[in-house]
Amino acid sequence: MATYSTNEFKGGLKIMLDGDPYTIVENEFVKPGKGQAFNRVKVRNLKTDRVIDRTFKSGETVDSADVVETEMQYLYSDGEFWHFMKPDTFEQFAAGPAAVEGAVQWLKPEDMCNVILWNGDPLSVEAPNFVVLQITETDPGVRGDTSGGGGKPATLETGAVVRVPLFVDQGEMIKVDTRTATYVARAKE
Amino acid sequence: MIKSGIRDSGFGIRVDVGGRKAEGGCRQPDWHPTAPIANLRKRAEILATIRAFFARRDVLEVETPLLSKAAVTDVHLDSIAADGGFLQTSPEFAMKRLLAAGAGDIYQLCKVFRAGEAGRHHNPEFTLLEWYRVGWDYHRLMAEVADLLAQVLGIETEPEYLSYREAFVRRLELDPFTAPPDALEAAAERAGLGGAGPLDRDGWLDLLAGGCVYPALGKDRLCFIYDFPVSQAALARVRQDEPPVAERFEVLFDGLELGNGFTELTDADEQRRRFEHDLAYRRKQGLAEPPIDRRFLAALEAGLPESAGVAVGVDRVVMLACRGERIGDVTAFTAENA
Predict the structure, then answer these.
(1) Mind telling me how many Å the CA of A11 is from chain B's nearest CA?
(2) Among A7, A28, A30, beta carbon nearest to B116
């Protein structure tokens, strides 16, 4: 397995700590002029998303985590697993509920998304920052009300619910920011 | 993900650093300076202020070789080998040879090199101001350091003076001279510095100093830490107190270490023992064993006048003056894009 020395540490580097894959969020080299050198790092556990602090003696080495981010196509869900495919090799991967949490509510079959693989298994799935989805259910539109004030809930074709302005109608396509789960604009499909 | 690299340079100029790299496509290497030109002007002003300060006080500017056949043995400093010799980590040995030769009060502004030191407040190549005062001790020198830095940084508040022990007791409620290593380790764990072990006593002290004790010191004023454990004496004279202490000081501003000074060790035999002790430690740890500077030892044998000396990291001083956040904000280029 490849290893990294602390002097290769930088944001985004994937390393193994206590048996879990982590990504380095921040790395700070600290050294008193006449003293021993350390690397103080903030690392994010890629399984739990928790961020922790760790201190290393400079020059120490840690194992790299075999973590790769790949663009894949979402195929379907069988209720237990969500299936994705690499478009170039047609290789298929099955992700469990923990890996797809937060992403699947924005995905419909054939959409592209980022899948993070750890040792070849999906660790997490990221929806694109913006998606265009159809409204399947919302209260009737209020024509002419473009004030943007208020708003109403709308259910999208993937089952996600977002607040939309009053003038938006059922059946329309809208653009949604998945990071904040908010309506951005009407979209022409 | 790339953060928008916009930040304030401290001179009212908005500088876009990271953003430039974010523009994909054409792969020209980034040739731009890391510092805004305004900060380079400030750097030049500060260098002129430093030279005027010493000219007024009749301290002689000298230059000594950056490339020498010998190197420092300090277990935490690694020299860069070059052309059969070593780039110097500080001009200390050469300047002390000048002191032994009767040069009197001297200062030097030069580049020094320390392998592997790179980070927000470190660059493997940096500018050092080092000076020596003949017949002075470290307390008198601390006052002069305070005068110079107050002038350069525009500090009006009086500096704070804390012994190394007081600094630890205040922050951690433990005595750095007597606390056992496991108490130091527990303190590090509590301070969010876990995972670094196993370390020896000085390792824990260094970690606690840099990660917990120092960052809380010197808010809007200079803070001097003095009287270090003998195990961290470096090239300082040891005073036989109970327990003995090294007449060494560090100066901090806003938690950042700016300089380190001593009442200089003038005893050649003691100096040779410290070098050999360093080398034995290096051998045990499988570290490089650089050649001892025998010409420096010969100068000590001939007689180094009683003196005090200090080295100040100029880039960090300029960084504070420019309200920068990293060394690259005040150096034309860093090691990364040199």
Answers:
(1) 10
(2) A7
